[in-house]
Design goal:
Layout (H helix, E strand, L loop, with lengths): L9 E7 L2 H11 L7 E12 L1 E10 L6 E8 L5 E8 L2
Antiparallel strand pairs: 1-2, 2-3, 3-4, 4-5
Length: 88
Amino acid sequence: MNNEKMLGGWKQFDEEINDQLEEMFETAFKELNEMKLTPVKLIGSQLVAGMNYRFLCLSEDEKKTPKIVTIYRNLQGQCQIIDISDQK
């Protein structure tokens, strides 16, 4: 079964960050001043009641640790972080 067409299935990407994605990322992170992450690529999206987006990011620590950040964007365009995890 092709999960790219299923509601709730993740569609995989390897897309460079454009201005719209950068703005969404910055909006979601504006309240997390202590965590500094730089988005590198959009690596997935998931259709829900709105949309989930997965970003590959680098932390701004000395090791530049890769992280996966999932951001939910609701139907009104509001964004919030729903998960931050280490890249496996």
